[in-house]
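The data layer described in this paper is built around a simple, fixed record for each protein. Such a record has a labelled line for the sequence and another for the backbone structure tokens. For reference, a complete record is included directly beneath this paragraph.
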Amino acid sequence: TVCDPDAVHYDDLHLEYIPTVLAAGAGGIVTSFASGGVPQDSYVLSMLEEAKVGKAARMESVITSVLMGPDGGTHTSNKPEGIESPTGDDVLSESQGLMMPYVARKKDNELFDKAWGYAKAHLTRGGLMQWYSSDAGTASTVNATLDDLRIYRALAESGNHDTEAAAYAAALLESAVQNERLVAFYDFQLRKSSVT
């Protein structure tokens, strides 16, 4: 803890708001900050935890303990918004499509299988992923091809899901490629791809 009564460090660091709370890791590198007021205790504790374990480990901890449900779905936030889907409590194919490659590269097979299990059970339609699924049981009628590509790549890189990756690739070629071009989405209700 450093107290800077003469604002010397504020000038040195070009800080514009008083007070500013900084958290630094073991090497003295600032890992997070809060400016313009004294943050709540929980925020300061989060800053200190990040400084202690590192940004990546802290982010993974928040995602897996706060945003990821017990069924493996990575929710968009921990605060349901109470509006039409998708809301903060829904799971997007984008969230699963970012989580799965991350854990595949980490070789965390247990977390990968949990995330993939959710995607298979709640997002899959016609071999592709609907772009959101809600706890209320509603889901999108379209996919998001970019998210499907991320999930396919994660399956292929995992080394444990070759058969599923091959089936996914076939579904992508059938529905997400038109006139030798990748399309943005496929509409499951209309049974046709976007024209872009």
Summary: The longest strand covers residues 30-35. The first helix runs from residue 8 to 12. The helical segments are 8-12, 41-53, 55-67, 93-106, 109-123, 145-158, 162-175. The chain is about 45% helix and 15% strand.
